[in-house]
Write a structure and sequence with these properties.
The protein is α/β, with parallel strands linked by helices. It has 17 helices and 14 strands. The longest helix has 20 residues. It has 2 domains: about 270 residues, Vaccinia Virus protein VP39 (Rossmann fold), CATH 3.40.50.150; about 160 residues, no CATH class. A hairpin with a 5-residue loop joins strand 1 and strand 2. It has a 7-stranded mixed beta sheet, sandwiched between helices. The two termini are about 55 Å apart. The radius of gyration is 35 Å and the shape is elongated.
Length: about 525
């Protein structure tokens, strides 16, 4: 699942992902790690730590003018995801001036957050680190990018978060950032206890030292320690924030902040490629602007396209001619097609009701309570199969060259041309679309949906006193789905659209759409006898 479209709106990679071909042509160190697939596309093996490191270093050089070094045995950050966090901190600290001061808890060998914040916005950073290797690389990366005036890298003792780092400081910081160790132990790091078994394996390699990826109690306890420090520091920082690797950590941490009476709390999501991260922020200042959390749905769902089929002009005209047989006296073919649809829905015992619509359209609101269309097709196929299997009369015996006039009692009365019962369809389908519809329905007949109900649709009809249900069911009634059917004329043809409203399964509406279409075309092939 690609999540790039859900990146922060200001993320430069949101609508323009890295061009691997261009980067390979410009940077020889990156070119060594790219491959060209059979389609000629330039690909990168994200399970190769060296390839991931080459991409990170190349993007920082190309897009931010930063030159860094990262050891393979330490965490290799992805640039687009870290950039999301920087942009969110911009949102948190909006209106506080450009000379903002921040703390990066556990900056890592790359020192990526301070380098991005300083190069993009001129922010001042205090970057803490407990690991010797990470500390040495972070200092080197700051110095070789001439950022020592903006970034101060400090080595702190193990388990030091904010209190010990700031005990000799009197500066009020605007924010802190943290990418905490996600896992509590080796099993979690390997996905044994923390990864849903139904999820596919990670598409990228997991790098990082022990202190970078594991901590006692995992990220949940780690962030709780930051919350504990913040309760003592309070207004020494305007915003406290951290990034989370597991969504399940978000709710208990927000509950912890609520219990502690923290006045301002918000959260967000970071999206990149197939990776999701969550971030939590809180403040003890009443005057801060709190960015709104993301909607429950990351983005507004695209308007669902309706299921559509077209009744050609000639077919619509024939249906209009036959409309009198069902009591329809409308003047327009679209009205006749609508009347035929209502008759078919009545025969299928699908609840339906005309609803007001625009002058150019006719609309039917329908509620399907029981899957009657699949069973109807099954019955027609079974009926046709039984007809094909009718026993044939034995050949006549020649007694004195005279044909036998009285058939045997057990032999059906047949003629040279066997006649099927009226209404049986023994001929192959003449409409190609109908054949396709039948094939698709055959694939779906293995699935039967039974909806528990105290009364059958037929009994409901009797109580309503009508031949067919004509209105939506009561709120307590079970239903399979509801949809709106619009009928309109386009270029002399009649177009039928089915718009999903709600229900259990959209495939059922697809099946009904096929049934309605086939029934209309079948009506033209076998007109109703008056």
């Amino acid at each position: 699942m690609a999540l790039n479209k859900s990146m922060h709106p200001r993320n430069r990679y949101k609508d323009k992902p890295p061009d691997f071909a261009y980067l390979a042509s410009k940077y020889p160190d990156f070119q060594k790690h790219v491959q060209i697939n059979l389609l000629g596309r330039v690909m990168l093996n994200f399970k190769d730590p060296e390839a991931v490191r080459a991409l990170t270093c190349t993007l920082l050089k190309e897009d931010f003018g930063l030159t860094i070094e990262i050891p393979l045995e330490r965490l290799i950050p992805t640039v687009p995801l870290r950039l999301n966090y920087i942009h969110w901190v911009e949102d948190l600290t909006e209106g506080q001036g450009s000379s903002r001061r921040g703390i990066d808890i556990g900056t890592g060998a790359s020192c990526i957050y301070p380098l991005l914040g300083a190069s993009m916005n001129g922010w001042f950073f205090l970057a803490t680190e407990v690991d010797d290797i990470c500390y040495n690389y972070a200092k080197k990366n700051v110095e070789q990018n001439n950022m020592a005036g903006l970034i101060k890298v400090v080595k702190v003792p193990q388990k030091t978060l904010l209190m010990d780092a700031l005990k000799e400081e009197s500066i009020v910081y605007d924010f802190c950032m943290c990418n905490p160790p996600f896992f509590a132990n080796q099993l979690e790091a390997k996905g044994v206890n923390s990864r849903n078994s139904r999820r596919p394996p990670p598409s990228s390699v997991n790098t990082g030292g022990v202190t970078e990826i594991m901590a006692e109690g995992g990220e949940l306890e780690f962030v709780k320690r930051i919350i504990h420090d913040s309760l003592q520091l309070k207004r020494r920082l305007r915003w406290y924030s951290c990034m989370l690797g597991k969504k399940c950590s978000l709710a208990p941490l927000k509950e912890e902040l609520r219990k502690q009476g923290v006045p301002k709390v918000t959260h967000t999501e970071f999206c990149q490629g197939r990776t999701m991260r969550w971030a939590l922020a809180w403040s003890f200042y009443e005057d801060v602007t709190v960015p709104s959390p993301p909607c429950k749905k990351r983005k507004l769902e695209k308007t669902r396209k309706p299921l559509t089929f077209t009744v050609p002009e000639a077919t619509a005209a024939e249906l209009h001619t036959q409309a009198a047989s069902i009591g329809s006296t409308h003047s327009a073919p679209s009205e006749s097609v609508t009347a035929w649809l209502e008759k078919i829905l009545t025969d299928l015992k699908v609840l339906h009701k005309r609803v007001p619509c625009s002058e150019s359209e006719l609309s039917i609101f329908l509620t399907a309570v029981e899957n009657t269309w699949i069973h109807g097709r099954q019955k027609r196929r079974e009926h046709g199969r039984q007809l094909r299997e009718l026993p044939r009369a034995p050949p006549p015996t020649n007694h004195d060259s005279e044909p036998e006039t009285n058939p045997a009692p057990d032999t059906p009365n047949t003629s040279n041309t066997q006649q099927a019962p009226e209404g049986a369809n023994l001929e192959p389908h003449s409409n190609e679309e109908e054949v396709k519809g039948q094939q698709s329905s055959e694939r779906g007949t293995d699935i039967t949906m039974e909806t528990p109900s105290t009364e059958s649709p037929c009994k409901q009809e009797e109580e309503q006193g009508g031949s067919a249900p004509q209105g939506p069911p009561s709120p307590a009634q079970q239903f399979l789905f509801k949809c709106l059917v619009n009928v309109k004329t386009e270029d002399c043809d009649v177009v039928v659209e089915m718009h999903w409203v709600e229900g259990q399964n959209k495939d059922l509406m697809n099946q009904l759409c096929t049934c309605l279409k086939n029934s209309l075309f079948r009506q033209v092939a076998t007109p109703v006898q008056n």
